[in-house]
Design goal:
heterodimer, A: MetI-like fold, two-stranded antiparallel sheet, 82% helix, B: alpha+beta, OB fold (Dihydrolipoamide Acetyltransferase, E2P), six-stranded mixed β-sheet, five-stranded antiparallel β-sheet
Chain lengths: 268, 350
């Protein structure tokens, strides 16, 4: 068997396979080690010191509010980007002129500009509004600014591909007014884009650190900010346990959204 | 498509001075006045950019005519109504079927919009699918249909809401030739059976002649000729129409004293005098070794089954297309004698 396979795949194949596995190792190994550290009794001694869940318990005791806040911000951010982004993408898809193209470019600015700069701009502008500055909504605004272009882009890509104009004309010829066309034709046919946009927005929001680090207050810490906190000031086992919790949270979410995105695409 | 005919109310359509200027100043359509009788099938025929689709879209309500223009369905002025309130049925070139719905949902969409309850909706969709012989496809997704099936779904979807008029925008263009011929017959039968006022846009003269009660030939945003298919074919208003509808030969001629000098020979002539261009169809040129007026050399012989299309060059250096019977065979370089009946010639001013 081996000789047959070996004959079928040349040296180049095995070299490529080896290289691919090596790259995977380099990527996965640190994650695995970090996860392992989160359940190790004493990282300096190593795995022989035994496995424990007490670091996880400690993180949950100290940082569960950051986890909840991160989820809250991510979901609110998703809602906001859906409500803002889908109509924006629709207008951009239906009306292609210099103004909409300019708007599209402007919209992507927060991706190009470093998060810290965006955050600073927000603080300079709204920092004086005390109630707002202190609330989690301040972080939400930053996240929406940052993630909106991803939502708009992915919805726009799908909308541009399905010839919305003609579909809508078809619906209109059958008597459908704007609202009905939007909800029965535009939205369902943009679903793959909306789902993949949602996937990106939630993931980006949960993991966002740059902006959030400047925007947060001691009372509005998100998970990544808490993570940085624990890395900086606590035992490495606690930081690692924190990472573990992040993975447990975010991976099912990613898988779910991936599955949804696949479901939304027409079968080929 | 031959089951129970749903008869439609024949609604006449009138266009008054409808012009269209697009932003940026491009004049897509010169002012057009047109009366379409109830139940009539009118075909807008012309090359791309001639204004035929713009006219259709103005009738549909997808475009507004320039100020001053108006559109009437019967006695109702619909100019200000958007398409969704005109109650028209429209079949698009790309069909515009909704990919998020199956066949039955597509066909039922217009009924759903009209708030018709599920039971009656299902019944009417079933009826319509039966008429189109598509019951078996009711639960198919659009991307599981062939081009011809999509075309029928589009027709069914447009007709099920009992529109006042039916608009078809190059509905057969996306299909291959064989299918096109079959569907052309079906559409023709359907339109006659339903008695609905239908407006059909195409650039294919064969489609236009087969389907139309009247053809509106358009060019450069203008109506060039309106007439029955026979009118347009046998009495084209100008060389453009003659050339666009069917194939035609254009010859130089000189007329004087009851004689027309053409292809180096004289034939009796009662028409206009002076230097003329005369048009003659390939099937109106005969090959006649005895009475033929002019000699010509075969330069191309294309066997088409039912006939052989010859291209010949005459002694005067003019090139003609001629239809010869399919069973006669020719070789390049053969010499033939051609005969033209003066009453088959159409004179055009130079």
């Amino acid at each position: 068997m081996t000789t047959v396979t070996g004959a079928r795949h040349g040296v180049a194949f095995w070299l490529q396979l080896g290289f691919t596995l090596l790259v995977c190792m380099l990527l996965v190994a640190p994650m695995l080690l970090s996860l392992l550290a989160g359940v190790t009794e004493n990282y300096l001694v190593g795995i022989e010191s035994g496995l424990t869940t007490r670091w996880i318990a400690e993180v949950l005791r100290g940082y569960s509010d950051t986890i909840l806040l991160s989820l809250q911000v991510a979901l609110a951010c998703l809602a906001a980007t859906l409500v803002l982004g889908v109509p924006v993408a629709y207008v951009l898809a239906r009306r292609g002129n210099w103004l909409t193209r300019l708007f599209e470019e402007l919209l992507t600015m927060p991706i190009a500009v470093p998060g810290l700069a965006t955050a600073l701009a927000l603080i300079i502008t709204y920092g004086g509004v005390g109630e707002f500055r202190r609330s989690w909504l301040f972080i939400l605004v930053g996240h929406v600014l940052f993630t909106l272009p991803f939502m708009v882009r992915s919805v726009l890509a799908v909308m541009s591909a399905v010839d919305l104009r003609t579909l809508e004309e078809g619906a209109a010829s059958l008597g459908a007014g704007f609202a009905r066309r939007f909800f029965t034709i535009v939205l369902p046919n943009s679903l793959p884009g909306i789902l993949s946009g949602s996937l990106m927005v939630v993931t980006l929001s949960i993991g966002e650190f740059n902006l959030t680090w400047l925007l947060h207050t001691p009372l509005t810490k998100t998970l990544p900010v808490g993570l940085a906190d624990s890395y900086a000031s606590l035992r490495i086992e606690i930081g690692s346990a924190y990472t573990l919790i992040f993975f447990v949270m975010v991976i099912p979410l990613l898988l779910l959204l991936q599955a949804l995105a696949r479901f939304g695409q027409p079968p080929r | 498509m031959s089951r129970d005919p749903l008869r439609f109310e024949p609604v006449p359509v009138r266009l008054n001075a409808c012009a269209k200027t697009f932003p940026g100043g491009t004049r897509a359509l010169e002012p057009i006045d047109l009366e379409i009788a109830g139940g009539e099938t009118v075909v807008f025929l012309g090359p791309s950019g001639c204004g035929k689709t713009t006219t259709l879209r103005i009738i549909a309500g997808l475009e507004q005519p320039d100020p001053g223009g108006s559109v009437f369905f019967g006695s109702e002025d619909v100019t200000a109504l958007p398409i969704e309130r005109r109650n028209v049925g429209m079949v698009f070139q790309s069909y515009a079927l909704f990919p998020n719905m199956d066949v039955a949902q597509n066909v039922g969409y217009g009924l759903r919009v009209r708030g018709i309850d599920r039971r009656r909706r299902d019944a009417r969709v079933g009826e319509m699918l039966a008429m189109m012989q598509m019951e078996a496809l009711a639960r198919r997704r659009i991307d599981q249909l062939s081009g011809g099936q999509r075309q029928r779904v589009a027709l069914a979807r447009a007709l099920v809401v009992r529109p006042r008029i039916l608009l078809l925008d190059e509905p057969l263009t996306a299909l291959d030739a064989k299918l096109r011929d079959g569907l052309r017959l079906e559409i023709d039968r359907l339109l006659r059976q339903l008695g609905i006022t239908a407006i059909y846009v195409t650039h294919d003269q064969g489609e236009a002649m087969a389907l139309a009660d009247r053809i509106v030939v358009m060019s450069g945003g203008r109506v060039v000729q309106i007439g029955t298919p026979r009118d347009v074919y046998f009495r084209p208003a100008d060389p453009f129409v003659a050339d666009f509808v069917g194939t035609t030969n254009r010859l130089q001629a000189q007329a004087a004293d009851g004689r027309l000098h053409v292809l180096g020979a004289d034939v009796p002539w009662a028409g206009a005098t002076g230097p003329l261009a005369v048009l003659v169809r390939p099937e109106d040129v005969r090959l006649d070794a005895v009475t033929g007026q002019a000699e010509a050399k075969v330069t191309t012989a294309m066997f088409l089954g039912d006939r052989t299309r010859l291209v010949v060059e005459t002694g005067t250096g003019e090139t003609l297309s001629i239809d010869a019977p399919g069973r006669a065979s020719f070789a390049i370089g053969d010499t033939v004698r051609i005969a033209i009946d003066p009453d088959r010639l159409l004179a055009m001013p130079l």
